[in-house]
Amino acid sequence: MSTDLNILIIDDVLDNIQVIMNVLKEDNYNLAFATSGKEALELVKENDYDLILLDIMMPEMDGYEVCEHIKAIPGKRDIPIIFLTAKTSIDNISKAFKVGGVDYITKPFNAEELLARTKTHLELYTLQKKLIQNNITLKIKNELSEKRLKEEIYETQRELIYMLAEITEVVSDETGKHIKRVANASKLLAHYCPSLSEEDEEIIFTAAPMHDVGKIAVDPNILHKPGPLTDEEFEIVKTHTKLAKKILGNSDRKVIQAANIIALQHHERWDGTGYPDGLKGHDIHIYGRIVAIVDVFDALVHKRVYKSAWDINKAKEHIIKGAGSHFDPDLVKIFIEHFEEFAIIEDE
Predict the structure, then answer these.
(1) What is the CATH number of domain 172-346?
(2) What's the pLDDT tens digit per position in 125-176?
(3) Is CATH 3.10.20.310 the right assignment for the domain spanning 6-140?
(4) Are 243 and 276 a contacting pair, CB within 8 Å?
(5) Left if phi > 0, otherwise alpha if psi is -120 to 50, otherwise beta: which for 308?
(6) Using 50, 70 and 90 to split pLDDT, how confident is the model at 91?
(7) Of 103, 150, 154, 268, which is most buried by a Cβ count within 10 Å?
């Protein structure tokens, strides 16, 4: 057997220890011994053993008590313990198994039996450790594989979202840079919002580009109209929020659900006068309230087919004036406190 296998012999009689060591040295084990329960427990705490041979009848602390203490030491519970006993009554043997022993050997020792039982339990323990290690390795591999799969699914979702968002830009009057600026600004505003987590930041960053996806189903002649819309045309444009729900509303994916909320609610107003459902205040999801601010701001400072670009400070004043009526006043406050960072995004 390998010299990597360590055995601890616990017996208060040195002659018994010597007999055991003389037998076991034939298989080239690493052998250690203790002559009391207290000494044995210190050795077990400080060293790793693959098997313990434990005498039952010892002064101060008998083998049963030593076994119970060993089983209570963190990381040592699974070490196999073979009891050494001259008592072969059913009660003694039953108690040995009850406290955690895996086997027992009767005194006086038979050398062949001692070698065979020792070898058997060392092989079992070695196999058990390998199985545990293999299970840990397999668990880690499965976790990493699952993580990679989730990341791949997430990246695929993000890619599809951007592709769909860019299709939206083609049929609307906006540019592809608009969706990227809205995504970056939404994430930035979410970052400074104390009620939101890093996960929320990533979700809104990924979902925000879908805010106008419903425009895919709106007449492009209306969307590209260079002049003011008629009341009838505006009502048609307003349907893009509900149309988005038809596209996104049946998914159970977190990012798509967030995109659905944003597309449906980013035209709601804090005072309840927005569309499509006239939601008011905190009844509007915070994702929708965030995108409402950054979408309007971006639309103001960049040229559209129906309007010229506004000066950035004029657009800033518009957002401030809209606090409490159009926009969530707390979010506007955050937006203004970090305005220079949002201005940088608009220059991109």
Answers:
(1) 1.10.3210.10
(2) 888 888 878 887 788 888 877 878 777 776 776 777 766 666 666 555 555 5
(3) no
(4) no
(5) beta
(6) confident
(7) 268
